[in-house]
């Protein structure tokens, strides 16, 4: 069924609760394994029904945030989701207490039970109102940023559309575009401070009610991080500081020489080539057609997937007024359909969407037939291996998008991927410090950001822009507000994706085979278990950061 034809109906929450609780009772009282399995199937079906409606409403809201109907539906789910999570909590509790626990674990595998144990530590009915408040605060950030329009060269454009000008080969255009972006954030600085301050406090309060000293360990449990710790992530950040940051300093000097400027400013940072970074050639439909050719040639599996996406109109790619910023992949379980959402802007970002978000979509397409909803997606850092890995596996087809600048596009891609690591760990360390010190004032948080930023990105020069020099850059990062501690997952995954890139030079066929195997497993294993199956070394091993120096030949 095409996306536009999928009917939407708001779930009847009372009916769902009644049917869910009836199935829970049957699971608890089951005297036969078959009855317990039947109850689990009913519960999973109810969950899929609810989350399919949620995804459908959310996608349509993001496509047009000015649509009053879906804006109201978004408000409904902000209040309903915590109640459904309470039902899920009861399911996990009943599952772990079932007299058929061992038999059910053989049927559904141990990862479901690991997830259940972790989730039980993240919820109590006493935090329901706090969860609703947390959701509303996150939504208020999304509403503020998605509605943003700025004046630029006589036009009113969105922040997504402004990005193309920030990547202009003309230095003055870049400068003015960046100033326009941060003028918007500066004007809204107080409101952004207020939203984040309230988020920190409500999340800290939730954590305390659940018996944690701070929100940090609770955030790790929410993200289902079962086989690595806060200390492992800190170790990774230290590896970046000692192994990657010095490498980036050398690359920055090389960048300055290429651009033929005396000193790099913040608006120069995203640009590597003097003539401007390569941009894809063609309209949106032409780029999509190029992606179709690429995926059909890559493998039968990827070709089948992308043609499914096209046939069912499961992508919305154009940037327009009122559309939610950024990009994401969602999944409509009842229709076994991924959905790719993006804002094309004429830059390399457009190709990244057709590889990065398509990597997410390909994975969930491959794991769409799991009976256990928990297995549709793995944990977040594993999800990002699918996306970032696909970006690199697409390299042999870059000529389809960039024509005679394909090799330059690969250079810029590798350079930006490595450069991102420093920013990624900065965001992560900032969040750890912010939640470990929830009473910091907004001014103290901005000062903290500048201290962290200077550790991992000491070369940054804000050219006298007060908002940025006072430590405001982090406010543009929606993950900080909406998906706490998620951002380091991009760094973790990048270390894994770089390994796929290096292996693909040596044996492309086996690398692709391992990648598809990783996707097929979905979320049925924990993160480090998935890595072993896919023959990927743990990113927490210091030798992985050291080995990134092997990529230097690509960056010269």
Explained architecture:
- The longest helix is centred in the N-terminal third of the chain and has 31 residues, at 33-63.
- The termini are far apart.
- This protein has 556 residues and is mainly α.
- The strands form two sheets. Strands 3-5-4 form a three-stranded mixed β-sheet, sandwiched between helices. The protein has a two-stranded antiparallel ribbon with strand order 1-2.
- Helix 12 runs antiparallel to helix 13 (300-311) and helix 15 runs parallel beside helix 21 (488-506).
- The chain contains 24 helices and five strands.
- The model has no long low-confidence stretch (mean pLDDT 94).
Helix-strand blueprint:
Layout: H1 13-29, H2 33-63, H3 68-97, H4 101-108, H5 110-120, H6 128-146, E1 149-152, E2 155-158, H7 159-166, H8 171-187, H9 189-209, H10 215-222, H11 230-259, H12 284-298, H13 300-311, E3 315-318, E4 328-332, E5 337-344, H14 348-366, H15 380-393, H16 399-402, H17 406-436, H18 442-456, H19 466-469, H20 478-482, H21 488-506, H22 508-520, H23 527-533, H24 542-547
Parallel strand pairs: 3-5
Antiparallel strand pairs: 1-2, 4-5
Helix pairs in contact: 1-2, 1-3, 2-3, 3-5, 3-6, 6-9, 7-8, 9-10, 11-17, 12-13, 12-14, 14-15, 14-22, 15-21, 17-18, 17-21, 21-22
Poorly predicted regions are none
Task: State the assembly state of the protein chains.
Answer: single chain
Q: Please state roughly what percent of the residues sit in beta strands, choosing from under 5%, 5-15%, 15-25%, 25-35%, 35-45% or over 45%.
A: under 5%
What's the SSE pattern? Answer: HHHHHHEEHHHHHHHEEEHHHHHHHHHHH
- Biggest beta-sheet profile: 3 strands, mixed
Estimate the mean pLDDT confidence.
94
């Amino acid at each position: 069924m095409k996306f536009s034809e999928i009917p939407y109906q708001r779930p009847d929450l009372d009916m769902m609760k009644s049917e869910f609780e009836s199935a829970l009772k049957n699971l608890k009282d089951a005297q036969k394994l078959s009855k317990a399995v039947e109850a689990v199937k009913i519960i999973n079906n109810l969950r899929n029904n609810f989350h399919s409606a949620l995804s459908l409403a959310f996608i349509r809201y993001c496509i047009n945030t000015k649509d009053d109907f879906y804006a109201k539906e978004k408000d409904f789910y902000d209040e309903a989701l915590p109640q459904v999570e309470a039902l899920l909590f009861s399911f996990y509790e009943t599952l772990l207490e079932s007299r058929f626990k061992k038999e059910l674990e053989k049927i559904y595998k141990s990862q479901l039970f690991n997830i259940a144990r972790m989730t039980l530590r993240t919820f109590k009915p006493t935090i329901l109102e706090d969860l609703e408040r947390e959701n509303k605060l996150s939504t208020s950030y999304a509403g503020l940023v998605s509605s943003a329009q700025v004046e630029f060269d006589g036009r009113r454009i969105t922040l997504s559309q402004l990005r193309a000008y920030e990547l202009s080969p003309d230095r003055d255009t870049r400068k003015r575009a960046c100033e326009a972006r941060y003028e918007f954030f500066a004007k809204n600085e107080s409101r952004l401070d207020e939203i984040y301050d309230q988020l920190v406090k409500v999340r800290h309060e939730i954590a305390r009610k659940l018996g944690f000293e701070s929100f940090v360990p609770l955030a790790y449990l929410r993200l289902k991080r079962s086989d690595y710790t806060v200390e492992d992530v800190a170790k990774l950040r230290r590896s970046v500081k000692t192994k990657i940051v010095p490498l980036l300093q050398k690359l920055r000097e090389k960048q300055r020489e290429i651009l033929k400027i005396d000193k790099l400013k913040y608006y120069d940072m995203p640009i590597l080539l003097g003539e401007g970074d390569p941009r894809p050639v063609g309209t949106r439909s032409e780029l999509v057609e190029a992606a179709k050719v690429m995926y059909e040639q890559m493998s039968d599996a990827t070709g089948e997937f992308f043609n499914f996406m096209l046939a069912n109109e499961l992508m919305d790619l154009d940037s327009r007024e009122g559309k939610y910023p950024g990009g994401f992949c969602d999944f409509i379980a009842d229709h076994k359909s991924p959905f790719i959402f993006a804002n094309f802007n004429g830059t390399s970002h457009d190709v990244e969407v057709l590889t990065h978000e398509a990597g997410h979509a390909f994975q969930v397409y491959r794991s769409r037939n799991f009976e256990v909803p928990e297995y549709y997606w793995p944990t977040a850092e594993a999800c990002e291996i699918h996306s970032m890995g696909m970006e690199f596996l697409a390299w042999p087809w870059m000529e389809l998008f960039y024509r005679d600048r394909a090799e330059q596009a690969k250079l810029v891609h590798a350079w930006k991927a490595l450069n991102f690591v420093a920013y990624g760990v900065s965001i992560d360390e900032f969040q750890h410090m912010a939640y470990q010190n929830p009473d910091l004032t907004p001014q103290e948080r901005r000062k903290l950001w500048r201290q962290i930023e200077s550790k991992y990105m000491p070369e940054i020069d804000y050219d006298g822009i007060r908002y940025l020099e006072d430590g405001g850059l982090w406010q543009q990062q929606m993950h900080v507000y909406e998906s706490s501690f998620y951002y380091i997952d991009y760094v973790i995954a990048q270390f894994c994706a770089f390994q796929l890139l290096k292996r693909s030079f040596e044996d492309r066929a086996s690398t692709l085979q391992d990648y598809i195997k990783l996707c097929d497993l979905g979320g049925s294993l924990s993160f480090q278990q998935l890595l072993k199956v896919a023959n990927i070394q743990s990113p927490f091993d210091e030798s992985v950061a050291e080995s990134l120096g092997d990529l230097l030949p690509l960056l010269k």
